[in-house]
């Protein structure tokens, strides 16, 4: 079977402490894959290694069937991600924040911004700034940012955090829709 994300014995140590030990993942096309575990289990560290933000101490990573060595931009540019606190500008609106982000990724597309905001239930016309957002609205904006990238792999750290029951239902449906498009969604959660 061909895997889009594959790791073999992935390990990350900080000094004497192993944050992640011997993690072997096999994620095929079109899968929703959950990294489940308590706080501090190492979920974010696995995601950071997949994104090239932390260097593995040992073990290997293959993305799209290719071993990841050095910093393969062409591979990383095919992954949309939201991990830890995304750096949104507090005094800008959702649309302004996503516009800046889309310029940084080199793929500005105003229609995708509107579509992504609409999908997560935020108004693209709203004059509310990020600092005036509730926790759930901030979380929805982070998800819109990942969706806007429209890449084959979406990596999200605790996307349901801070959402109410309705919000969790909305995001679950949205993730299923992305899966049906053939995408891989890798999620971390401390809720099983
Ligand atoms: P949470 O559910 O709280 O987000 P997590 O499963 O994502 O937790 P990680 O953030 O991956 O856990 O952390 C795993 C372990 O690695 C923890 O013990 C943490 O203290 C440690 N750790 C993470 N980053 C570093 C770092 N930069 N330096 C030292 N230790 C770190």
How do the SSEs run, as a string of H and E? EEEEHEEHEHHHEHE
Q: What characteristic shape results from the CA principal axes?
A: globular
| Mean pLDDT across every amino acid position | 91
CA gyration radius, whole angstroms: 17 Å
Q: Could you give the count of β-strands?
A: 9
**End-to-end distance, in Å?**
27 Å
Beta-strand percentage? Answer: 15-25%
* Structure annotation, total helices: 6
Identify low-pLDDT runs. Answer: none
Please summarize the sheet with the most strands: 5 strands, antiparallel
Helix content: 25-40%
Structural class, by secondary structure, is alpha/beta
Bound molecules: adenosine-5'-triphosphate
Question: What would you say this structure looks like, in words?
Answer:
The chain is of the alpha/beta class. The chain contains 6 helices and 9 strands. The strands form 2 sheets. Strands 1, 2, 3, 5 and 6 form a 5-stranded antiparallel beta sheet that branches. It has a 4-stranded parallel beta sheet with strand order 4-9-8-7, with helices on both faces. Helix 3 (94-104) runs parallel beside helix 5 (135-149). The two termini are 27 Å apart. The model has no long low-confidence stretch (mean pLDDT 91). Bound molecules: adenosine-5'-triphosphate. Residues 14, 19, 37, 39-45, 190 line the site of adenosine-5'-triphosphate. Adenosine-5'-triphosphate binds at residues 14, 19, 37, 39-45, 190.
């Amino acid at each position: 079977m061909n895997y889009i994300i594959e790791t073999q014995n992935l390990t990350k140590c900080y000094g004497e402490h192993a944050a992640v030990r011997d993690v072997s993942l096999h994620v095929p096309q079109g899968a929703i894959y959950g990294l489940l575990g308590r706080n501090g289990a190492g979920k974010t560290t696995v995601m950071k290694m997949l994104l090239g933000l932390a260097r593995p101490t040992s073990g290997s990573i293959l993305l799209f069937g290719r071993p990841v060595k050095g910093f393969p931009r062409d591979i990383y540019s095919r992954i949309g991600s939201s991990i830890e606190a995304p750096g949104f500008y507090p005094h800008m609106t959702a649309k302004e924040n996503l516009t800046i982000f889309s310029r940084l990724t080199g793929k500005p597309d105003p229609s995708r911004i509107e579509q992504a905001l609409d999908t997560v239930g935020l108004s693209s016309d709203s004059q509310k700034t990020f600092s005036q957002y509730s926790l759930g609205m901030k979380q929805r904006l982070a998800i819109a940012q990942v969706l806007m990238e429209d890449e084959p792999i979406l990596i999200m750290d605790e996307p349901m955090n801070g959402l109410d029951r309705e919000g969790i239902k909305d995001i679950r449906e949205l993730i299923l829709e992305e899966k049906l498009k053939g995408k891989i969604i890798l999620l971390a959660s401390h809720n099983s």
